[in-house]
Amino acid sequence: MHTDPVADMLARIKNANKALHESAEMPASRMKAEIARLLKEEGYIKDYRVEKGDSFDTLVVELKFGPKRERIITDLKRISKPGRRVYAQKDRLPRVLGGMGTAIMSTSNGLVTSRTAQELGVGGEVVCFIW
C-alpha cells in the first residue's frame, strides 16, 4: 500500500499536536511546504522551515499553542485521497465548521485556502480541512 505523503504530514502534525510537542518533522516536498505556508498564514502553526539534508530535506513545522498550552489545531482531515479524488467547483466551495475552519485546495493558481479560491473565482482539488 502506497502511503499518501500529505496524509502522512497531517498525521504527524496531528500526533505532535495531541502530545503537545513543540514541532513535527517530516520529509519535505513542495506540496507539504505550501500546506505549511497556508497553515502559518491562517495562524494554525507558529512557523515552518525546510532543513537541507544529505539524502532528503526535512520539513519542520513548529506548532502553536494558546497561553495555557491549549491546542490551536483541533483536527486536520485529508479530504481528497489518491484513491478517491475530491474536487470542488468555484460556486460549490467547501465550508469547514460554518466558516470556523479552513479548507486547503489545490487550484491552477497553486495551493490556496477555499476563501482565497472564492476571491479568485476558481475551483480545484480539496486537499484537506483544518479547524
- In total, the number of domains comes to 2
Largest sheet: 5 strands, antiparallel
Strand content: 25-35%
Ends: how far apart?
28 Å
The count of β-strands is 8
Helix content: 25-40%
Q: Which radius of gyration do the C-alpha atoms yield? A: 15 Å
The structure class reads alpha+beta
Question: CATH topology of the largest domain, which one?
Answer: Ribosomal Protein S8, Chain: A, domain 1
Shape: globular
Question: So how many helices?
Answer: 3
So, CATH architecture of the largest domain? 2-Layer Sandwich
Average predicted local confidence, pLDDT: 93
Top-tier CATH class of the largest domain: Alpha Beta
Pick out the low-confidence regions.
none
Write down the secondary-structure element order.
HEHEEEEEEHE
What do you see in this structure?
With about 130 residues, the chain is an alpha+beta fold. It has two domains: about 5-65, Ribosomal Protein S8, Chain: A, domain 1 (2-Layer Sandwich); about 75-130, Dna Ligase, domain 1 (2-Layer Sandwich), CATH 3.30.1490.10. The chain is built from three helices and eight strands. The protein has helices spanning about 5-20, 30-40, 115-120, and strands at about 25, 45-50, 60-65, 75-80, 85-90, 100-105, 110-115, 125-130. Strands 4, 5, 6, 7 and 8 form a five-stranded antiparallel beta sheet that branches. A three-stranded antiparallel beta sheet has the order 1-3-2, covered by helices on one side. A hairpin with a 6-residue loop joins strand 2 and strand 3 (about 60-65). The radius of gyration is 15 Å and the shape is globular.
